[in-house]
Structures are given as structure tokens and as C-alpha cells.
Amino acid sequence: MDVRVQEAPFDFGAEASAFAARQTGMGAVVTFTGIVRDLDGSLDHMMIEHYPGMTEKALGAIAEDAHGRWELGGSLIIHRHGRLSPDDMIMMVATAARHRKDAFEAAMYLMDYLKSRAPFWKKELTGDGALWVAAKDVDEDALKDWD
């Protein structure tokens, strides 16, 4: 398990390649990257806040839970904080398993829980002002699949 919370951008290709290279005896590697969206063309940037220490601990617990549910050889979570612009990479998840089903399901689980339970606070800044991003019902509903 590798969990990183960082302000700096990451190189998705390099991270995915390095993660895959560390996996021995695995038959599948699944990756996902989240990107800052500007749905209506008004987003200047997004500010993501977190509490250092608490956030890493919470992400580690989510990763540990995934390792307990599926037979994973490894997992990677990278989540950025600070100022992010539209089209910036905001997060990355990678999982490795002997079989693709475990890798895919664990990656989906991590993404669903990161979206709904990771302790980050997001504020969108536009020409009209600032707005805290509220939780979405669809994200909460996705968690029901994992009960």
C-alpha cells in the first residue's frame, strides 16, 4: 500500500509504470485518474483543503479495507491538495491483483470511498465567487454497492 497526499502534480505515466514494475506475480494492474472538470466553462480554479496526518490515516484505512476485501498484490492512492486548475490531475488510484476482477473491483471501491469519505474540502472559484462543493447523492448511493 502506498498512500500519498501532495500539492505537487504527478506524472501519471511514470507513476503507473513504476507501480506496475513493483508488482510481481500479478496478472492485472488497473489504474484510474481523476481530472478537475469545468462543467460549464466558469471554473477558474479549485482549492482543496485537508488536515495533514488525519487525511493520510483515513486514506490508509480505506486502502487497508480494500486489501482485506480483495486479494491485492499492491495499491496506490495519490490525492492532491491546494490550487488546481481545470484539466489538472487531482487523484490517482492503482491496484494490482492476480486476477482482473479483484483489481477492477478494488479500484472501483477505492474510487467510490475516496469520492465520498476522504477528508478533503473542495471550493470552486469562478468569476462569480466561491462555492464549497457539496456531497452528491449519486456518490453516496455508490457506497451501497459495497455493503
Please characterize this protein's 3D structure.
With 147 residues, this protein is α+β, with helices and mostly antiparallel strands. It has a single domain (2-146), classed as Molybdopterin biosynthesis MoaE subunit (Aldehyde Oxidoreductase, domain 3, Alpha-Beta Complex), CATH 3.90.1170.40. 35% of the residues lie in helices and 36% in strands. It is built from 4 helices and 8 strands. The strands form 2 sheets. A 4-stranded mixed beta sheet has the order 1-4-6-2, with helices on both faces. Strand 7 and strand 8 form a beta hairpin. Helix 2 (54-69) packs antiparallel against helix 3 and helix 3 packs across helix 4 (137-143). It is globular. It starts with a strand and ends with a helix.
CATH topology grouping: Aldehyde Oxidoreductase, domain 3
Shape category? globular
The assigned structural class equals alpha+beta
Task: Trace the largest sheet across and list its strands.
Answer: 1-4-6-2
Termini, distance in Å?
22 Å
What is the fold's blueprint, element by element?
Blueprint: E1 2-6, H1 12-22, E2 28-35, E3 43-50, H2 54-69, E4 72-80, E5 82-84, E6 89-97, H3 100-117, E7 120-126, E8 129-132, H4 137-143
Parallel strand pairs: 1-4
Antiparallel strand pairs: 2-6, 3-5, 3-7, 4-6, 7-8
Helix pairs in contact: 2-3, 3-4
Give a brief outline of the structure.
The protein is of the alpha+beta class and 147 residues long.
Question: Features of this protein?
Answer:
Aldehyde Oxidoreductase, domain 3, globular, alpha+beta, four-stranded antiparallel beta sheet, 35% helix
